[in-house]
């Protein structure tokens, strides 16, 4: 029997979930627990940042709210972030409680999550959209006084809509996995928007569904959905960030910078938004460098940020700083060097006048992968100099 917990760390896919983790946190606090939530971080990195790791170290129990959309399509950052938090809790021998919500069933755990230690892992399933049973079960196991579902009427409707959206997101990942056109997902989202026209996330996800469409009519629909989402909930940073990327693709650079700057004002702790704005600056590398510096300060373990900052530093002819960033990126990426990072290092060495060293790096890349045409092209180019 576990001892009474005082401090719970609540993990959830905050990229797509808003009401489920908020309602769970309120319910658990009402039952007498101290709850720390992982904040809504939309980042480039896969690993949890140091601040989150410290919060997990301080908790008594690690609780993860799992939905079908949380576990689908494993390359997603939110999925890898959740796995990183879960593994950290396991390494610290924290008891792990998985709350299976929105139709997620326990028999899918083995296919979706790392092998779990049965002695330190409990699974609680959410019935329908009610938090009452899941919180009562938790309190029966660990103590506390459940007082019912918080703000029952409001949360029940929002949880119902969020569950429908989660089902549509799950369908979208299936479409990507099996290379399906996505018509069924689009129909699902159309019906949700029609039934709940005042729910911002429904409009946003419908926009996301067609965000890579190239036709003018499709782009206009995406723009319309993002506009509706922002009008309904102007305080959600990711809506402004997605609008910014759309406008950037449409070559409205100034408006894109304005939108991503709004996202930064709403969520100044998101490294991704600074990195996104940095990529918009184009012919203003000093501004790009300032944004990448902030992003690196916020997410110092993200190799992509160092790689991208190195590109800006190279443009500014700060060669030694650029080389240092590439070395850091390769170190963070791991023992198996990503060929793209090695090629980037070769380009920097060439610009520094160290052509022999650049060719040696390219030889390593080509030896590892003789089909790498980019490395071969650069080797021919550098050899001619």
List keywords for this structure.
single chain; 385 residues; alpha/beta; 5-stranded parallel sheet; 5 strands; globular
Short description:
This protein is of the alpha/beta class and 385 residues long.
Describe this structure in words.
With 385 residues, the protein is an alpha/beta fold. It has 19 helices and five strands. Helix 1 links the parallel strand 1 and strand 2. The model has no long low-confidence stretch (mean pLDDT 85).
Secondary structure layout plus pairing:
Blueprint: E1 7-12, H1 19-30, E2 34-37, H2 50-58, E3 61-66, H3 68-71, H4 77-91, E4 96-100, H5 109-112, E5 121-125, H6 132-142, H7 152-178, H8 183-195, H9 200-209, H10 216-232, H11 237-249, H12 253-266, H13 271-280, H14 285-298, H15 303-315, H16 319-333, H17 339-351, H18 355-368, H19 373-383
Parallel strand pairs: 1-2, 1-3, 3-4, 4-5
Oligomerization status of the protein chains: single chain
Give the N-terminus to C-terminus distance in angstroms. Answer: 72 Å
The proportion of strand residues reads 5-15%
Rg calc: 23 Å
- The computed structural class is alpha/beta
**What's the number of extended β-strand segments?**
5
Helix content bin? 55-70%
On the 0 to 100 scale, the average pLDDT is: 85
Low-confidence spans: pLDDT under 50, at least 5 residues?
none
Total helices: the number is 19
Largest sheet: 5 strands, parallel
SSE series:
EHEHEHHEHEHHHHHHHHHHHHHH
Per the principal axes of the C-alpha atoms, what is the gross shape? globular
User: Reading side by side through the largest sheet, how are the strands ordered?
Assistant: 2-1-3-4-5
